[in-house]
Design brief:
By secondary structure, the protein is of the alpha/beta class. It is built from 16 helices and 16 strands. The protein has 2 domains: about 5-75 and about 370-410, Urease, subunit C, domain 1 (Roll), CATH 2.30.40.10; about 75-360, TIM Barrel (Alpha-Beta Barrel).
Length: about 400
């Protein structure tokens, strides 16, 4: 049986927006007093004025809303690290006291610390915490969540994390998109020969990932304290030849990563805080999505990625949270996107596109990110009559109603 949801004061469909470059708010497609018709499989079969849909489909079950509501497509967070153990509160205290990210790592903190704590955590603890974090995001209107491995840093431990992420995906109503990030940092045992670690991944890790169908996505951190551009390019060629989609941690503290991403045909280049005008032009002339992570800037106390310049250069800009225990502990996509918009002077259309339709492109998802016929009925509805109120409240106005594949979610 079909069911009809509405009326919504405003439906922001995000349809027919350019995927690249700047957007103005007058480009936003808004349906007033709108409704959404959903089939039994969780897909949208009609969208338009609520009363028109009601007359055209008199047998549809009606989920009638009272009061004012603005609906967006379910939000999409394209870059998270939800599967971890322990805490990095000590790191944060040192960082806000003036100690650099790199110096904290040299003192035994940083990603190596989380690797140690994650290895010590039991499978049940990691599974429960990953599901809890995913459900927390779902209750904030984020219906699709990318989740990386990366805190195992050995073949056995990275496979363990991907299996836990796969199990977590079965225990939450959010869609989880797993990504293999075994090349997050250089393991201590391979500090002098990182190429040997990568060779081990090609021979022992990725074939198992494929055999068990754990993910079709691979990631590598390219930076002066991680993997250099030459190693990253070799990694990119190998994993792409195996059939994996590639994404890259790029230009966070030093440049070079976005060049690797573009040359290797990566789906996205993520971070970009250090990107130069030449990097931005290169990204704009490619099919690689420029993904900025304001949560990492807030967590580290560093400038935001140059989102305004990336858009003006002609990039497809996605915005993600980078939720992780070290550099991005906030994990609140909407707040981060609103703050980024204020500091980088982004229009509401650019911000909303960055967490819906353009975010879908960063994950190669063609069935979401837009409210429209034939699309998955993932919907985040906010209790207001004016879409501008959502970012105006900088994350404090939360969704009051959420549908995942057409089924309503009980929010926390």
């Amino acid at each position: 049986m079909q069911h009809l949801i509405g009326p919504f004061s405003e439906l922001l469909t995000m349809r027919n927006l350019p995927l690249n470059g700047p957007l103005s708010d007058d480009q936003l497609p808004v349906i007033r007093n709108g409704g959404i018709l959903i089939d039994q499989d969780g897909y949208t079969r009609g969208i338009g004025p609520f009363n028109d849909l009601r007359r055209a489909h008199p047998d549809a079950e009606v989920d009638r809303l009272e009061g004012d509501w603005v609906a967006l497509p379910g939000l999409i967070d394209t870059h998270t690290h939800l599967c971890w153990g322990g805490s990095r509160a000590r790191d944060y205290a040192l960082r806000v006291a003036g100690v650099s990210y790199q110096e904290i790592a040299a003192r035994g903190g940083g990603i190596h610390d989380t690797v140690a704590q994650t290895r010590k955590a039991g499978d049940d603890i990691l599974l429960q915490s990953t599901v809890a974090r995913a459900n927390q995001l779902l209750c904030k209107g984020i219906t699709t969540i990318e989740v990386k491995s990366g805190y195992g840093q050995s073949v056995a431990q990275e496979l363990r994390l991907l299996r836990i992420i796969q199990e977590a995906a079965r225990k939450t109503r959010a869609t989880i998109i797993p990504t293999a990030l075994p090349a997050h940092i250089i393991p201590s045992a391979f500090a002098e020969r990182p190429e040997a670690y990568l060779d081990t991944l090609y021979e022992e890790f990725f074939p198992v990932v494929q055999a068990e169908q754990l993910t079709t996505r691979a990631d590598i951190f390219v930076d002066e304290h991680a993997y250099d551009a030459a190693l990253a390019m070799a990694f990119a060629k190998k994993v792409r030849a195996m059939g994996f989609d590639l994404t890259v941690h790029a230009d966070q503290f030093s440049t070079g990563g976005s060049s690797v991403a573009v040359e290797a045909g990566a789906v996205s280049a993520d971070h970009l805080e250090a990107s130069t005008p030449a990097d931005m032009k290169r990204l704009a002339n490619s099919n690689t999505v420029a993904t900025v992570l304001p949560g990492a800037s807030l967590g580290l106390g560093i400038p935001f990625a140059p989102a305004r310049k990336l858009l003006d250069a002609g990039c497809c800009l996605a915005i993600a949270s980078d939720w992780n225990p070290g550099s991005g502990p906030m994990g609140d996509l909407l707040t981060q996107a609103a703050l980024l918009g204020a500091y980088e002077k982004l229009s509401h259309a650019e911000v909303f596109a960055g967490i819906t339709t353009r975010a879908a492109r960063a994950l190669r998802l063609t069935d979401r990110g837009i409210l429209g016929e034939g699309m998955l009925a993932d919907i985040a509805a906010f209790p207001t009559a004016d879409f501008r109120e959502i970012l105006y409240h900088q994350g404090q106005l939360q969704p009051g109603a959420i549908w995942k594949s057409g089924r309503r979610i009980n929010t926390l």
